[in-house]
Amino acid sequence: MVSSKFTINNAQGLHMRPAGILTNALKGFDSEVSIIKDGEVVNAKSIMNVMAACIKFGAEIEVQCDGTDEQAALDKFTELVASGFGEA
């Protein structure tokens, strides 16, 4: 398992559009990808779970990836955060 911490810098947080970009990008990986926010663990491949987590601007989250392509999945998540999910 690999993990990393992130701060969400999108002005609107992970609303519908960036959540959709995130979940679509992660569905191509075999590994399980989880987002941990305030002790709550959600499946990062589920748009409904990501939306329900209410991840807002400035939120600090941890992402855990576990599986055969875990590092590639974490690298993709890192890339998406750095790009502002296409909004920055």
TrEMBL record:
<feature type="domain" description="HPr">
    <location>
        <begin position="1"/>
        <end position="88"/>
    </location>
</feature>
<keyword id="KW-0598">Phosphotransferase system</keyword>
<dbReference type="Pfam" id="PF00381">
    <property type="entry name" value="PTS-HPr"/>
</dbReference>
<protein>
    <submittedName>
        <fullName>Phosphocarrier protein</fullName>
    </submittedName>
</protein>
<dbReference type="InterPro" id="IPR050399">
    <property type="entry name" value="HPr"/>
</dbReference>
<dbReference type="GO" id="GO:0005737">
    <property type="term" value="C:cytoplasm"/>
</dbReference>
<keyword id="KW-0963">Cytoplasm</keyword>
<dbReference type="InterPro" id="IPR035895">
    <property type="entry name" value="HPr-like_sf"/>
</dbReference>
<dbReference type="GO" id="GO:0009401">
    <property type="term" value="P:phosphoenolpyruvate-dependent sugar phosphotransferase system"/>
</dbReference>
<dbReference type="InterPro" id="IPR000032">
    <property type="entry name" value="HPr-like"/>
</dbReference>
